[in-house]
Amino acid sequence: MAEPLLAVRDLRVVIGGRHILHGVDLEVAPAGVTALLGRNGAGKTTTVRAVLGLVPRSGSVRLGGEETVQLPTHAVVRRGIGYAPEDRGIFTALTVAENLRLAERDPEPDYALVHSLFPELKQRARQAAGTLSGGQQQMVAIGRTLLNRNRLIIADEPTKGLAPKVVTEVAQVLERAAEAVPVLLVEQNLAVVRRLAGGCTVLADGRTAHRGATAELLEDAEAARRLLGVGRHPAATPQEARP
Ligand SMILES: Nc1ncnc2c1ncn2[C@@H]1O[C@H](COP(=O)(O)OP(=O)(O)OP(=O)(O)O)[C@@H](O)[C@H]1O
């Protein structure tokens, strides 16, 4: 297997005396989408926050072979991680163009890439971001991460709370983004995971419970039920809005 882009080993997080993560191992492939899965409260968001240095952590977090676990967030981010948070973090009163400008970090932000992947962001440059659809707002959130020369994009539950048609739009957005930059995708919608992610890591109770090929996991009804809490076959669950 190719060298992982991100290699997390024995990641541990303690907050307020409570052990939230106690042994997360995770590898993100150097191309395409890798999924981070698990039931509610398994520790997915905390893992992402720990990778970014937003919570105190121990263990090892190697990005492109370089250890980052001791670095502050600004130094981690400057090494090339773009983050699209669960609530999208859009400035609703500002225009699309203003939202993108506020994300500029590099001296020469790559608007050509963002506009080629998401032409709608150019067409809607002067529109207030709060008036965009959920799918369009995700384009802004993902577009911001692509403006700078990031090596990895982390998207936290980008389809959460969206209507099935919009879920399809967002899956397309992520698919296009992953052609340019590898993506670590935290996602509950298994149809999206099945469509986009070659490999996955499943967390349970703050630990890695499973790692492997996404298709194999989702075809194994018993493992999917045990690890993800889904029905007899994942395709039969309500989570599965068709992407
Ligand atoms: N700052 C905090 N202080 C105390 N407990 C926390 C904190 N952050 C998270 N937790 C707890 O840690 C556990 C893991 O939370 P986390 O948000 O990482 O899970 P998750 O897998 O992302 O869940 P979800 O799918 O519901 O977003 C939960 O029990 C949560 O209540």
TrEMBL record:
KW Transport (keyword) present: yes
Give one Pfam family, short name only: ABC_tran
Domain named ABC transporter is located at 6-230
Tagged with keyword Transcription regulation = no
Q: Which domain of life is it from?
A: Bacteria
Q: Name one GO molecular function term.
A: branched-chain amino acid transmembrane transporter activity
Q: What are the entry keywords?
A: Amino-acid transport, ATP-binding, Nucleotide-binding, Transport
Q: Which InterPro entries match?
A: AAA+_ATPase (IPR003593), ABC_transporter-like_ATP-bd (IPR003439), ABC_transporter-like_CS (IPR017871), BCAA_Transport_ATP-bd_LivF (IPR052156), P-loop_NTPase (IPR027417)
GO BP: any one term: L-amino acid transport
Q: Which family does it belong to?
A: Belongs to the ABC transporter superfamily.
Q: What is this protein called?
A: ABC transporter ATP-binding protein
| Classification lineage | Bacteria, Bacillati, Actinomycetota, Actinomycetes, Kitasatosporales
